[in-house]
Amino acid sequence: MNSANQSLKPISTRINDSGHLEIGGIDLIELVQKYDTPLYVLDEETIRAVCNDYKKAFKSYSKINMMYASKALCNLAVSKIISDEGFGFDVVSAGELYTVYKSGADMSKVIFNGNNKSFDELSLAIKLGVGRISVDNFFELSLLNEIAKSYNINVDILLRITPGIECHTHEYIQTGYLDSKFGFDLSQIDEAVELITERYSNIRLHGFHAHVGSQIFETSIFPDEIEILIKEIAHVKKKYGLELDEINIGGGLGVKYTNDDNPPSIYDIAELIINKLLECVDKYKVKSPYLYIEPGRSIISCAGVTLYTIGSSKKVPDGTLYYAIDGGMADNPRPSLYQACYSAQLANKPDSNAVNKVTIAGRYCESGDILIKDINLPEIEEGDILCVYNTGAYNYSMASNYNRVPKSAMVLVNNSQSDIIVKRETLDDIISHDLIPGRLKDE
Ligand code: LLP
């Protein structure tokens, strides 16, 4: 069965009677007239559809804990929608933790990840009552025990391990290979377990956590990871008599950025995961564990598009035709960071024939700020609105103020309603944290 992460566009996308692109029942050209560009647009129906795909796909395994990886896109409205869908959250900073908390989420369904959590962040996590902390290294284990002791409480943890699995995604978004900066090496697990059982009396270990990488299309990765995690659970049971019953397999399922991408369906992945889990429970003779999954990109990416206004153009001697937009690497750093490819259409004339191969350049002062290389689009005129698909994940969450450009606004659309969920930054916002020392001030 197909799932919404396999869609290039938000599922409510259509061409309306005015010949414009429409998402969530809202004409994108009218949206631009109201809120200006660049504009992030999120389709609530698509977010909820993917959440439902995950819930249905894992329904047969009752001990499932769905956590949304909020690093993909974190703000109050998105957190509210996703917690209403019954998901918990993977957070990796005080900022994400605080946002999720303020959105009203159930903090017992939050897991705190990260390879260098600070004293203050761990303390905040404990104070806000997060359900699990995924401890990444020996330093953190000892720090966390000290903090828990000072509060006179026990903290519930998983150990983040490096499973030694490589996946074929961009090297910057692989995390499970042996030399990764994340997690305990498999050879360090015994020492960690001994420290917890013999010395760190304020720490309660529940299981293991791993995450192999992101934008993964290879279906074998997840079963391989499960086997490694269950094997470790069996090892700890045999050696220490400790029955752990939780595994967290991270996130990573891919999405469709262009027509060449064929990400697996959530239903197929879930079936593979559940079958492998049942097989391993039997093979290694362990209790069937609670299974955590932490999808980020596959939940939010295709719900999002970004709208830009096309401005200047230039033809260079090699024949490349550049069109510049009013955004670029500061609102979507993925093409310059990972050579990521995107698809787009003109929102004001999506039906016109694609007659030109063009390159879409960003507005930032950097030659590498190219949003889309060689895309076929209709005849472009100044003022046309470009709709770039699949920008929900790792765009807004990785945005910067490079060149002191105010960050874009975000609008949520659904059932012919549009609501601002992140306000556009103003020029005063840009200078709001700047200070001129008194001694530099004019008399
Ligand atoms: N869990 C852990 C521990 C993670 O490190 C990540 C992503 C996820 C879950 C969610 O993975 P997802 O389902 O979104 O693939 N900025 C990069 C992606 C970095 C992903 C980092 N970790 C990009 O734009 O492609």
How would you describe the overall organization of this protein?
Helix 2 (44-57) runs parallel beside helix 9, helix 5 (119-127) crosses helix 6 (138-151) and helix 8 (221-240) runs parallel beside helix 9. The chain is 28% helix and 23% strand. The longest helix has 20 residues, at 221-240. The protein folds into 2 domains: 4-42 and 301-431, Lyase, Ornithine Decarboxylase, Chain A, domain 1; 44-299, TIM Barrel (Alpha-Beta Barrel). With 443 residues, the chain is an alpha/beta fold. Strands 4, 14, 15, 16, 17, 18, 19, 20 and 21 form a 9-stranded mixed β-sheet that branches. An 8-stranded parallel β-barrel has the order 5-6-7-8-9-11-12-13, surrounded by 6 helices. The model has no long low-confidence stretch (mean pLDDT 96). The protein binds ligand LLP. Ligand LLP binds at residues 69, 71-72, 90, 113, 173, 175, 211, 214-215, 250-253, 294-298, 334, 338, 394.
